[in-house]
Amino acid sequence: MKIKKITAVLLPFALLALGCGKSKTADTTPGCVMGNYGILTVNFASADIRHSVSVRFDGVHSQDKALPLGAKSDTLHIKPGNFPIRMQNLDNDNKVGTYRTIFTTIRTCKDTTLSVSF
């Protein structure tokens, strides 16, 4: 009878300890591994004009982002691969002025930084 009481008291604590111990690996997996992306940082020389970034994945799909006036850099999450990255400035009518296209390899969880002089 005494053994049943001890087991009844200790069993919930043992189950709680086992439950807490198995979630550690899931908590330490980086988001870039789970989401399968690399980090692309783009830098522009001037904050006085608007800029945009376009990543061309193939002939049809792209990821485009326009930066607000005053922004000189931005960070994008990009799937792994080798892509042309087009960095450009925009006038008040959102027409492209100066631009530069750089072919870049993006790797999962790796930081890539591109900079232009405009």
Task: Offer a quick outline of the entry.
This protein has helices at residues 2-21, 24-27, 31-35; strands at residues 38-43, 50-56, 62-66, 73-78, 81-90, 96-106, 111-115.
Oligomer: single chain
Number of helices: 3
Mind summarizing the main beta sheet? 4 strands, antiparallel
Specify the structural class.
alpha+beta
The CATH superfamily is known as Carboxypeptidase-like, regulatory domain
Tell me the number of strands. 7
**Topology pattern, helix = H, strand = E:** HHHEEEEEEE
Signal peptide: 1-25
Organism: Mucilaginibacter pineti
Protein name: Lipoprotein
Keywords: Signal
List the helices and strands and how they pair.
Blueprint: H1 2-21, H2 24-27, H3 31-35, E1 38-43, E2 50-56, E3 62-66, E4 73-78, E5 81-90, E6 96-106, E7 111-115
Parallel strand pairs: 1-7
Antiparallel strand pairs: 1-4, 2-3, 2-5, 5-6
Report on this structure.
With 118 residues, this protein is an alpha+beta fold. The chain has one domain: Carboxypeptidase-like, regulatory domain (Immunoglobulin-like), CATH 2.60.40.1120. The chain is 25% helix and 42% strand. It is built from 3 helices and 7 strands, in the order H-H-H-E-E-E-E-E-E-E. It has helices at residues 2-21, 24-27, 31-35, and strands at 38-43, 50-56, 62-66, 73-78, 81-90, 96-106, 111-115. The strands form 2 sheets. Strands 3-2-5-6 form a 4-stranded antiparallel beta sheet, with no helix packed on it. It has a 3-stranded mixed beta sheet with strand order 4-1-7, with no helix packed on it. Strand 2 and strand 3 form a beta hairpin. The radius of gyration is 25 Å and the shape is globular. 10% of the residues are buried. This is Lipoprotein. Residues 1-25 form the signal peptide. Keywords: Signal.
